[in-house]
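@channel anyone free to eyeball this complex?
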Amino acid sequence: MTAIENYLTEHRERFISELCEYLRFPSVSAQPKHAGDLRNCAEWIAAHGRSIGLEAEVNPTGGSPIVLMKTPRSPGSRKPHFLVYGHYDVQPPEPLELWKSPPFEPRIDGDALFARGSSDNKGQHFAHLKAVEAYFRTGTELPCDLTFLIEGEEEVGCTHLGPFLKARKKDLRCDAIVISDTGIPSPKHPALTYALRGIVAMEVTLHGPDRDLHSGIFGGSVDNPAMVLCQMLAQLRNAKGKIQIPGFYDDVLKLSAFERKQVARLPFNERAERRFLGVPALFGESGYTCAEQRSARPTCEINGLTSGYQGDGSKTIIPSWARAKLTFRLVANQNPAKVVRQVTARLKALCPPTVRMEIEPGHGGAPYQIEPTSPLAQASLRALKKAFGCEPVLLREGGSIPIVNEFRRLLGVDSLLLGLALPDANAHSPNEQMSLSIFDKGMRMSALLWPEMSAALK
Ligand code: BES
Ligand code: ZN
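replying in thread with the prediction:
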């Protein structure tokens, strides 16, 4: 390991400038205008993999390409095989005016590397690639075969990855999957995330008059779709944070006493959190701590709300339509399809006859959980401890990585979630950043992971 350690130290500056190059692609999967940037970004990371010594292929799909990169296999190799998953697509950077520097012009300030995608997720999987480079360049033998699967549709629901996994099932058969696309509570709390929330997304549109109407001439006699939508949505959750949808909580599993204890170990300061988020007060379902609300309880969120006139000044109209983008975060044992049915039934019951409602279901994924006591999970904890120099914590997290369920279903293996994003990473927000010292630790964690995990399989 000393040779690898030295290599990682010696080449650090180059790694960072390569990562900056990667971050310059505006690979925004939600926006069709960036399709070309996604393709170029995929080509770039594949070429980069080849320059390290990996065998790389860029697989076209109906959407963004899927990049596979493999360590060269020795004939008849019986080594363990691990798959590293990551995504090169990023969330939209808007609103741009809130960025201190442009989202696709990486900027370093002290320990922070600012750019859209720095933490979510280019910086995180890049750390794994650099660890492999260190193995190759120092002539250190890897105790396992590795495949990197880097896709470009994670932020929009992984539409094409499921079918790809099915088609390439044989090739991708492996002992476990490693994903660095989650968080850590602090540099002193490296973490294995053993649970993720699931998600369902939907769009609700209310249609009123067949065009915008003069609100003076018609107001009072025709219903206002924006008003109706607000009234309907307001009834999906009460003031105490409880979701008001019949049957919604039926399948929700309670946290065990052990889990509540684990969560309580995490650092949390309410005042600092309020300041960090810029809110006058925190809000959440009563009876649960903040960490519990964020990870072990389901939610109902309005992600976007559009209707009527949005330009300068005023315009006196009754809008013709109103639309909301909604997502629900789910926890074990909620079922996404069942939740879609429950929400749809509730919206139908709330919708008055004065408007016509259209509901378009979006992407979805079930909640996920692994057994943190498994030999591979324990091996990953040892690598975390060595790399970070302190005792790792076990986390449940609130975000979703829906493809982990497909990995389990199609490849029959668990995903170890070893995230590298600090709480102030600003994922999905303006001024996203990656801590470079955590990037350093991440490369070391990755290098240590492969011997630990390979040994755990023997
Ligand atoms: N990296 C996140 C997932 C994540 C974030 C997990 C924080 C745990 C903690 C991932 O890139 C992401 O944002 N996923 C989406 C999935 C959705 C679009 C289906 C999410 O959680 O919103
Ligand atoms: Zn994300």
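from a first look: The chain has a mean pLDDT of 97.
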